[in-house]
User: Fold GSCFA domain-containing protein from Flavobacterium frigidarium.
Amino acid sequence: MQFRTQIPILKSGHAIDYDAKVVSLGSCFAVNMAEKFDYFKFRNSCNPFGILFHPVAIEKLVRYAVLGKLFTAEDIFFHNERWHCYDAHSDLSTANQQELLENLNSIVQNLKQQLVEASHIIVTYGTSWIYRFVESDAVVANCHKVSQKQFNKELLSIAKIQESISATVELIQSINPKATFIFTVSPVRHIKDGFVENQLSKAHLISALHASCDFKQSDLSYFPSYEIMMDELRDYRFYNEDMLHPSAVAVNYIWDCFKEAHIGSSAFETMEAVSTIQKSLQHRSFNPTSESHQKFEANLRAKIAKVVLQYSFMKF
Assistant:
């Protein structure tokens, strides 16, 4: 007897292997998946501008990168003793104005190169809710704890999200027509927006994705992260203590589903070898000078050398 339902996921026709270069953009769940890519030593870049939750924020920074648009002093502001940019996450904020501008423009240039070279673009949308800065009427990616009175909160329409998705794809394809896109909706629940509002937000994202993207195309696919969390893992034991974010067990399960669908079987042996090395590197000996530990260290160095000989980009 089956006590849960499993979501069927089509096998990708453009599998990720160790020759791939992955660029991940989007919500904090994009970071969860990117950490798995990092662990297994794939070539992966994630959120150079920090976590981005909604489609318009992602589209805007992709546009900056593709068109080579640079940030100026007008794009940043001083608040709570730090310089911030409404288009980037607060992780990039600094106490020095020039440093922030230089960082932002360096990231723009690097992101363009990453998009040009990428074999796979993974986009994770988190919410349809946006904040519009009243003074400029511009949609922001992050409010940086500026008073909420200075923003209007809006729900992006399905049509507007469709436009943003299409623009993002077209911009990247203009510099990299061979890139493969994987879209997903974050399973993180944005309860601060309200329970009903969170479901409405996710529904807009899912509706827009399926309306604007023809997932029958070989270079476009949809991975059901949100659906796996809501249906296969429909129990609070699969959430962290905040009951909003997936637990480590849930992240591992969703990663395994992703692996089966989007990572080529030719990479599995190397992934296993890398995992063995990673676990060995975390080992702490009670007696580092013992003969057994010296043999362990020598064996580990040999395993690393063997993998690096095949994939020189790997660093341990």
